[in-house]
Amino acid sequence: MPLLTQRIPDENDYCLVASLDNVRNLSTILKAIHFREHATCFATKNGIKVTVENAKCVQANAFIQAGIFQEFRVQEESVTFRINLTVLLDCLSIFGSSPVPGTFTALRMCYQGYGYPLMLFLEEGGVVTVCKINTQEPEETLDFDFCSTNVINKIILQSEGLREAFSELDMTSEVLQITMSPDKPYFRLSTFGNAGSSHLDYPKDSDLMELFHCNETQVNRSVGCHLVMKYMIRNEDGQICFVEYYCCPDEEVPDS
Amino acid sequence: MKFRAKIVDTACLNHFTRVSNMIAKLAKTCTLRISPDKLNFILSDRVANGGVSMWCELEQENFFSEFQMEGVSAENNEIYLELTSENLSRALKTAQNARALKIKLTNKHFPCLTVSIELLSVSSSSRVVTHDIPVKVIPRKLWKDLQEPTVPDADVSIYLPVLKTMKSVVEKMKNISNHLIIEANLNGELNLKIETELVCVTTHFKDLGNPPLASENASQDRNLEQMAEVHIDIRKLLQFLAGQQVNPTKATCRPTELPLGSTLGGHIYCGLVCRASHVESGCSLNSMNDDHRSAAHVQLTLQQVSL
């Protein structure tokens, strides 16, 4: 990418330098967690973690490992900054949101450190766009100490099936109730709306179920008690990135 | 005052429809000027700050097989009508596979432009669809405000890049700011810039090429790398880009000299005019259709926004 390298004044000044041949490998993942304006970026030599939080209730994390990038260098132990995710996404998709098959936009991302803006160099078909986005003080993000020994129930589902279910949820219901149990109904999504209550059941031997480990019956209202939803997203080059959502409970419903 | 005209050629009809669609996208209300040789669609926005003015010219003989007009008087052999652009483009939608299209000025309780479209039915008998578009006749005393804009010599003229890329970029930039800076030089370089407190985004286009400037003197003195800069309202530019229904092979900037009917391919040109007085500064975009036979020339002038 000769066009892009010409523009960097001095590589050693930057504490984070990352290059991608296809910017969509990054923008798709970030879109998945774009439910708030701001995000915190945390980079180590292993990759970048981008965190978005909503009122200490929901936290989403996107992990983009160093291996996804064609070039990835972090000078210090870790680099952290807060940035406007809406603006970042607008910049990453500056050459258009709908991809034309066969065309790729290359990205080079550089950060000089505390107080400096994040520099983005994007190139498509010989046209170069340079973006300078101001960064902010990183904010403390909640640390959900989720260690596997505390896990009571764990389910792995193919997300396509869940997506249909979520799109059909009765929005007049104030809460979403999730039931996980070693006995019937195994995994149930329930809503209580104006027209009545509705239940979506996934049997444990369903084709969509990849893993079903339930030790106790748990019924939690709203997007659950320390419920973690972890997604594996495959990008255009077939590489895998992870996005996870941590949710705090509205209320826990005793077994009924 | 009389006006009647007829189009029988399908290509001419399609072209006329495309021009009308483009006008409808650019201006809600416009003026139609009818003279013995031409038709003009005019929009003049007297707001100096960030305003838009548009001048579209069609050579009558490139479109119409029959064309008769009689202006207000012998010395002022022209007709100026104000109409809602969408009414015309909607009427022309009916003319997709028409055999013939007739337009005439009529009076049906109020002045109208009556568009009659002759369509062939499956049974090969014809039927006629008529649209009456209400118009307002513009009095002589207001004609002076609707004259062809004199385009001042541009400081820089440049060929525009592939419109598709430019449109994608401008659309995204609009999400960030309404204030767009266009910079260009005589070295074929064009930059689109937006700057806010939070972010600066600059897109660099290179190797675009510059057509010869209208005034040779201006180009002699100017340093090739020196950028001319104008600040415009991004939404107006986007309206122009969105309205482009032609796929130009090259976009150029030559505000005054490009002859109509040129076969060089569709042209979109951008002239940057920068003067000491910001009010005069602006960006002039010119678009011309490819078809040698039926050329339409549209000029859109965007006034600089206050800095």
Automatic annotation (TrEMBL), chain A:
It comes from the Eukaryota. Signal peptide: none annotated. The keyword Membrane does not apply. The keyword Nucleus applies. Gene3D superfamilies: 3.70.10.10. It holds the Pfam family Rad1. InterPro entries: Cell_cycle_checkpoint_Rad1 (IPR003011), DNA_clamp_sf (IPR046938), Rad1_Rec1_Rad17 (IPR003021). It is found in: Nucleus. Keywords: DNA damage, DNA repair, Nucleus. Its main location: nucleus. Belongs to the rad1 family. This is RAD1 checkpoint DNA exonuclease. It comes from Bos taurus. The lineage of its organism: Eukaryota, Metazoa, Chordata, Craniata, Vertebrata.
UniProtKB/TrEMBL annotation, chain B:
The keyword Cytoplasm applies. Belongs to the HUS1 family. One of its GO terms (biological process) is DNA damage checkpoint signaling. Component of the toroidal 9-1-1 (RAD9-RAD1-HUS1) complex, composed of RAD9A, RAD1 and HUS1. The 9-1-1 complex associates with LIG1, POLB, FEN1, RAD17, HDAC1, RPA1 and RPA2. The 9-1-1 complex associates with the RAD17-RFC complex. HUS1 interacts with POLB, HDAC1, FEN1, PCNA and RAD9B. HUS1 does not interact with RAD17. Interacts with DNAJC7. It comes from the Eukaryota. It is found in: Cytoplasm, Cytosol; Nucleus. This is Checkpoint protein. Keywords: Cytoplasm, DNA damage, Nucleus. Component of the 9-1-1 cell-cycle checkpoint response complex that plays a major role in DNA repair. The 9-1-1 complex is recruited to DNA lesion upon damage by the RAD17-replication factor C (RFC) clamp loader complex. Acts then as a sliding clamp platform on DNA for several proteins involved in long-patch base excision repair (LP-BER). The gene is HUS1. One of its GO terms (cellular component) is cytosol.
